[in-house]
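Researcher: Good morning. I'm working through a list of sequences from a screen, and I'd like to move beyond sequence-only analysis. For each chain I'm collecting a predicted structure so we can compare shapes side by side. This is the next one on the list. No need for commentary yet; just the structure.
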Amino acid sequence: MHAIPSQMYKEIGQELIETMPELAYIKASEVKIAYLVSDNPKKENKTKMIYAETEKIPDKYKWGMKEDFSITVFSPHANLFNEEQRKILIFQQLLKIGIDYDDLKNEEKYFVREPDVVDFSVIINKYGVDWKETQQRLFDEL
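Model: Good morning. Structure tokens for this chain:
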């Protein structure tokens, strides 16, 4: 997978972290996030389109990357999103960033949170169940 840094998604992410109360834990942390865009499509089980994914950067790559997480948007699928849908997509990915504090070592521990009902309820309560319905219809017609 080839991915490059995305200034647009970085700006969206920074705005969300600054303004969304649900992301205050990220704002209060020292976590660093790389926002990437890939022109390669990604699918799960050859049928379900993946719009974006959040990954923790493994320690073995820390020599080359200063970030702790990457959020990769797969542009073939997300290109048809409008600005509001892009914000929701990045918001959803940011909710996957997990941060614990290790008091003994006096440091933050990072992990990718498993999706749960609470996370999705935040999206559903704010934006509804069908925030990407129009988008899916466009993909189905392609």
